[in-house]
Amino acid sequence: MSEHLHTALRLAADALPVLPLRKGKVPFGNCPACAKNACGGRPNMKTPGPCTCPAPCHGWAAATTDPHAINAPTWARAWSNAAAVAYHPGGAGLTVVDLDSAEAIAWAHASLPATRIVRTTRGEHWLYQGVMQSANAVRPGVDVKSTMAYARWLGPGTGTMTALPAVVRALAVKEPSTVRPAPQAITVPARAGNGECRHRTPAYLDRGIAMAEQRITEASSAVHATVYRTFLAVLSVHGRCGCLTEAHMARLFTAAQAKGESARHCTDAWTNALTRLGL
Question: What is this structure's pTM?
Answer without folding.
Answer: 0.62
